[in-house]
Amino acid sequence: EVQLVESGGGLVQAGGSLRLSCAASGFTFDDVAIGWFRQAPGKERQGVACISNSDGRTYYFNSVKGRFTISSDNVKNTVYLQMNSLKPEDTAVYYCAAASPGFCSDYAPLFGSWGQGTQVTVSS
Description:
124 residues, mainly beta, 7-stranded mixed β-sheet
């Protein structure tokens, strides 16, 4: 059974940092791309970052480049999203998702497996 479990969300002040984790199981980790998406109330789900586990390439979407860093631990089957310099507009539910084959994209329908999400709230 494919399973993705996010953790690490919470409440932080603007300018602060959080690290999200996505623990994966039930599939060959090296063959997939893992993406982070977020969805704020009343808004569409948008891509945040993606890592292709086969070659380690990383991609960033929207306004997070330079503030967020995605990384993967292929021994622990876990992908991380380090979020620095957080802004109130980063407030959203953050989801990790897996795509196989492992091509990164910010197009959510390409990702077939999703976690349950973790809430990130940035106060001003």
